[in-house]
Amino acid sequence: MDNKKATLELGTKPIGKLLAQYAMPAIVAMTAASLYNIIDRIFIGNIVGPLAISGLAITFPFMNLATAFGAAIGVGASTTISVKLGQKDYQSAEHILGNTITLNIIIGIAFGAICLLFLDPILRFFGASDATLPYARSFMEIILVGNVFSHMYFGMNAVLRAASKPWHAMTATIFTVVMNILLDIVFIWWLGWGIRGGAAATVLSQIMALCWQMKLFADQRQLLHLKRGIYKLKAHLVKNIVGIGVSPFLMNACACVVIIFINNQLVSYGGDMAVGAFGIANSIAMIFILFVIGLNQGMQPIASYNYGAQQTNRMMRVVKYSIFVATCIMISAWLISHLIPETCARLFTKDARLIEQSTKAMKIYMMVYPIIGYQMVVTNFFQCIGKVRISIFLSLSRQLLFLIPLLIVLPRFFELNGVWASIPTSDVMASTVAAVIMVVYMRRIKQEEPMYKTNSKK
What we know:
This is Multidrug export protein MepA. By secondary structure, this protein is mainly alpha-helical. The chain has helices at residues 3-8, 15-48, 50-58, 60-86, 90-117, 119-125, 133-145, 147-162, 166-190, 195-217, 235-270, 272-308, 312-339, 341-346, 352-365, 369-384, 388-448. Helix content is 84%, strand content 0%.
């Protein structure tokens, strides 16, 4: 099947089959990525030590901030490309590809250079203590040097999905994960490079995957391909990319701010071991979050294309399917966090105190996970159709409006338990807001349906 025909099927093929076709590769890729995160931290926790796990947890805000800039370009570009393909505007889609590459190079280099200049003060601000600072610094020095390649790798993977190549995007991710694990064995275990070895493995594996991605886009037979004249930044294209990318950028930037608050509160009320427990609990939680992110990545080109083609029935059907699957994923997370939390914690460390704190953290952290799959899908949906203000509000509601105030207030009354309890409490509040907004929007869609030419095929 040629690339153009695959793109056109977004508007004609049965929704259930389409979602499976696009979401399964992304979910498999996210599964592989989550396994890498787990294995990487198992290596670091068991070989380097429990303080290294705490040091790695300190870098989470940095990683979220880097992801925020990458998402602003990658998600913005992929969504804009999908809409243009739905409108059959192939020339604009190609120029968006070129502008995506240029923006990733500029932002990737600038972010890495600025952060390297102020690395120690930033890590201190993020909650690093004298004991955890050396580990966090060693890890981030390598990550920031390779930041431009990471930006480009994630950006090109997003464009691959928008260009109707979900299996290629999955292959790139799985290749990165496999190489990462192999290089972890060599660098951390065999050569004894410690936490720096884990960072080097991450960067090198992404560089290798990026080379393969660029080779794919260099193929002149593809609907979207690299060629002269598409790399010069155009104001209207950059505006569209950044306009849509603002929502995921703010979501990840806020996650950075939230983790800074969490780390500092954990240090104040529980010390370095509490930070390590958060690192372990977050690692387990991220497995399931990444599953839903993969589902959202599969939903994105389908929803965006049909929105661009004004096929609202198909657009809403893919959202409903995605909500159902996301809820099932998060129920699985809740079951694991309550049935085998200690077993999960023991994967990362043999330290009894850290295991005890991690077990407790997991139970509270994922207490209301069955309802947050809905919130994640709804937030992503509004981003997919370019409703930037709604998506931004939903992205910020959980983190800025609810979680940060709770992190300030609850620990004053319940100390360390208050830090943990603030997370599920904010999840309940944000999911309620998302449900109300989605109900209002669906009613509006039903009222506007007669205005559009819709395709009701399943």
